[in-house]
Amino acid sequence: MNKIKLIVGLGNPGKEYEHTRHNMGFLFIEILENNFKNKKIILAKTEVFMNKSGTAVLALIKQLKTKPENVLIVHDDIDILWGDFKFSFGRSSAGHKGVESVIKALKTKNFWRLRFGIQPTFAKAMASKQKTRIKADKIILKKFTHEELGELDKIIKKAIRQLVSTVPSGLANSS
Question: Is-contact 105 58, C-beta < 8 A?
Answer without folding.
Answer: yes
